[in-house]
Amino acid sequence: MDTFIDHHVRVRYAETDQMGIVYHSNYLIWMEVGRVEYCRAKGILYRDMESQEGILLVVAEANCRYSSPALFDEEVLIRTRIGDATPRMVRFEYEMRSGGDARLLASGFTKHVFCNRERKATKLPGMYRTAFGILGENGRG
Amino acid sequence: MDTFIDHHVRVRYAETDQMGIVYHSNYLIWMEVGRVEYCRAKGILYRDMESQEGILLVVAEANCRYSSPALFDEEVLIRTRIGDATPRMVRFEYEMRSGGDARLLASGFTKHVFCNRERKATKLPGMYRTAFGILGENGRG
Amino acid sequence: MDTFIDHHVRVRYAETDQMGIVYHSNYLIWMEVGRVEYCRAKGILYRDMESQEGILLVVAEANCRYSSPALFDEEVLIRTRIGDATPRMVRFEYEMRSGGDARLLASGFTKHVFCNRERKATKLPGMYRTAFGILGENGRG
Amino acid sequence: MDTFIDHHVRVRYAETDQMGIVYHSNYLIWMEVGRVEYCRAKGILYRDMESQEGILLVVAEANCRYSSPALFDEEVLIRTRIGDATPRMVRFEYEMRSGGDARLLASGFTKHVFCNRERKATKLPGMYRTAFGILGENGRG
Q: In chain C, whose CA is at the least distance from the CA of B20?
């Protein structure tokens, strides 16, 4: 099992709603932040993969289970790992925890298809496969 | 099976990202719009249920599968129905389609727990149960 | 003076914050909606101007004065007009009012520079000038 | 003149639009982040001022001039200072610069009225005045 890469964000006022807690769609944005930082930790700049190699990670599915509300100004620990990857797709898994008391805020996953600049499905170039944990042609090691 | 309640929104520039398509977390916001309009069509003002009765629909899970990208200025048809409801929780199901060619953009669900103003789990007051399709004490008719 | 083009939006839950009112940056998004609808009313599809003619309205300045808070589920009237336009730039002015009691929520302006696809300043093609109220080469009629 | 308090954020993919740059309303959210960090640097937790003392900084006006576009994954330096403050209101000023080449991205201000929990104008309690640079009863030092 892949190990989590950790990153912290602080809850913005803009992310709260009138219930006094973080609006639920913002967790998907935190997952995106976690994903980009996962790539950075593995030596990949997501922005370069997109702008230089023309590889887009188009989102095919997103899921989030909410356990405990996140509050304004709270530090949030975003933990990201790869659950599955092939040359065609990658599935990231996430845990979001309070930076204070470590309580679980939410967990979830996103599934992505590797696409080219025209947003057509493509294969991940070999140079990126190790970082994504893809060993062979047909799947994850 | 519950029938869909339909509502249209138009894609805002702010909702696009540098991939040239709608950023994926915005579909969860469209689901919220669909949910509020579903309630309105059933004779419930969500804002009154919250402010007057103190009933909150706290999101416990959200899921979205993305089929085809939505584009700036496109009309989007949001179709919302209740998939399951008990006095304790409700599960909404959604389809989002292009208002133009009716192609499927995304589908998904959200699961909510009825809570009081302190965000503690509670039972949905009887006055709202018919609108949510809850017939008996323990579940959906 | 140009006359206002009117358009309505309904406040989304996602647009509120923990103060129980609409978070202030969302008014700039409503201005964008008003701007796009202003163009549509004048016979211009903003999306075509951008994708077909390669004309971008890059924001140079935005200003908003907040008079009264907008609340969840409230209908908001967005009133948009052009305050000034030359072949190089355009300044839109906005009023946002409650759709219910017509109280002023906010007013403001945005100033835009016409740019090409490389985001370099350019002149607005002649075919669009009438719609923007630009009569001569050097400014507004 | 008050000195700037500096804070860094990294541009999120969600903050970009189809022009390939940060959507302009997000700068107002960065200003909010700068404001909260300004308060923290001065020994004030904005969240406590709001939840414990019931003091809200309701936004009365926001202004932003955009100089150079911010790009995905770029580090942004947010510089925040107080331009003016009285027991009734405070005006924050901001500069946003690229963390890389220090080019100016945008500058602006927000003006806030101190309000109580009912969002009625009130006076800032004495305990906070020094942090906001308010020396006398009627204005800034």
A: C51
State both tokens at B72.
């700036």
What token pair was written down for A24? 């639920």
User: C85-130 pLDDT, tens per residue?
Assistant: 999 999 999 999 999 999 999 999 999 999 999 999 999 999 999 9
Exposure class string for A21-39: b at 16+ Cβ within 10 A, else e: bbbbbbbbbbbbbbbbbbb
Is pTM, for the whole model, over 0.90?
yes
A69 touches chain B (CB under 8 A): yes
The ranges of chain A with pLDDT < 70 are: 136-141
Whole-number Cα distances in Å, B68 to B82, B94, B102, B107, B108: 24, 15, 11, 10, 14
Tell me the pairing of strands A75-85 and A104-115.
Answer: unpaired
Beta bridge partners of C104: C97
Active-site option among A17, A73, A84, A101: A17
Residue B107 CA neighbour count, 13 Å, CB half: 8
Closest CA to C7 of B14, B12, A40, A17: B12
Mean pLDDT, chain D, rounded, equals 95
List, in order, residues 6 or more apart from B58 with CB less than 8 Å away.
A19, A66, A69, B112, B113, B114, B115, B119
Active site residue C17: yes
